[in-house]
């Protein structure tokens, strides 16, 4: 557990203690301990004796050490077991904290959403100390919007929840293997619910343990082989389907529940054509009724004359035809470089040296340091002088490395009036220039396209970053004619980005596929603002497989030599 997790767990314990309405001093002790940890600059590993910190007592120190060593807390587990799961889900209603829920629970016997609604309607809530008529009405109001949970959540929102579940499944000895399925495994931009396939020969035991997973707030369905629950974590609620299968059914069940639905329809047609029927349990020969199972999904696809289709590409979008041959999909293993990242020179959290060491540790051979340009004041964008100073520093740093090259770079703003943030004679000296739009999103399509045109047709700009400017589920981006942008990019030898942040995934898969078919070079980048974010590229490569990109389409898989040839070529075309 890192410090953030420990702090969050202490806060959670405090909240749960509030619900139980225990001695206020005990509750305060956990809050104080959380604050003390947060206020200390060291990492949790560096804090050897938590009780030495001001604000941390013996009991809370014990919990911290336990969390540090085991990632769990007995105190929390016991609390969780003693409070109805559905009561905990009420914590996500705006205006309801531990204290108030404790009152509702202890004094009115509220134990879930429906009993809370009932208590409000019967005007019982207003009679509680600290509530009143106004807050009862507010609660009713909040309750209404709370109950209409958004249909689909952005991938970035659900990934941490999925990872928490997986960490717990790892620990269950009765589970032989498990996997994500559904849209989560296909890495769709948004996800309605989480799906997991679990192989076990001890179904009954696994069922019980699934119901006791951390974060389960209520049980929707509890069949022999399917468990559906509502989960609440970090103020996000989502449901999850777990399917329990026998070990030898794992591959076919995994394929079946990975979908997409439309992909499954196509597979069933293939099966029918060869006198067979596909189900989650295996492939049945229509004539004899014999059911065949498979060790792996690869064997399953092979049975139908296909190469392994990566989950991301299972969208009934040409994958059956494509995988009749053995196409080469692009994987993170192919990456030789990350070409978009920030450092403390602008709004990044880590130094050039730290980012470079991390990139090198990932097995890359080169990287570009691309801090923000001067226009972006909120991001501490670089003046020309600072940019040049940074690049002198990078050239010096490069002398240290025989096996690695740092490219000088910049993420330059395209200004609202269509000007680029630096003049050509500055850009000319930079190895890798990214241009992007961070302002005036509400401009007309015409104006936006004029801005992009200025960047694409500049001989020293190599990449347009996050070309759509969207944030999945939060912001649509600016009004851009992507088809024309693709045409220009092809014409000028400019690369388009697949920004790998799970919040962005920009270009979207549809346009990525169009860009690839047009022969535009794609660049998959983390846009990391801190070390951990360098790992975002995994989502980018997954997204790229969904658009059926091949390694050669992606400039990050090229040798440094080929990348340099690419940037030179653009100069030759436009200078
Ligand atoms: P979503 O909407 O983000 O949850 O998307 P999926 O693809 O995860 O959809 P979900 O959770 O309804 O179902 C998971 C997969 O199970 C789906 O991709 C195809 C497969 N599947 C098998 N039988 C059925 C069925 O009867 N209905 C649906 N909808 N899917 C099925
Ligand atoms: Ca799903
Ligand atoms: Ca589902
Ligand atoms: Zn950036």
Summarize the structure in short.
The protein is of the alpha/beta class and 575 residues long. It is built from 23 helices and 17 strands. It folds into four domains: 3-145, DNA polymerase beta, N-terminal domain-like (DNA polymerase, domain 1), CATH 1.10.150; 153-245, Beta Polymerase, domain 2, CATH 3.30.460.10; 251-322, DNA polymerase, thumb domain (Beta Polymerase, domain 3, 2-Layer Sandwich), CATH 3.30.210.10; 332-336 and 370-400 and 407-548 and 557-574, TIM Barrel, CATH 3.20.20.
- At CATH level 3, the topology of the largest domain is TIM Barrel
Q: Please tally the helical runs, counting DSSP H or I stretches of 4 or more residues.
A: 23
CATH class division of the largest domain = Alpha Beta
Beta-strand content bin: 5-15%
Number of strands: 17
How many domains? 4
Main sheet summary? 7 strands, parallel
Low-pLDDT segments? none
Please estimate the helix content: 40-55%
What is the mean pLDDT? 94
Fourth CATH level, the homologous superfamily of the largest domain: Metal-dependent hydrolases
Shape: globular
For the record, the CATH architecture of the largest domain stands as Alpha-Beta Barrel
What is bound: which ligands? 2'-deoxyguanosine-5'-triphosphate, calcium ion, zinc ion
The assigned structural class equals: alpha/beta
Q: In whole angstroms, how far apart are the ends?
A: 53 Å
Strand order of the largest sheet: 11-12-13-14-15-16-17
Q: Gyration radius, to the nearest Å?
A: 27 Å
* Chain oligomer state: single chain
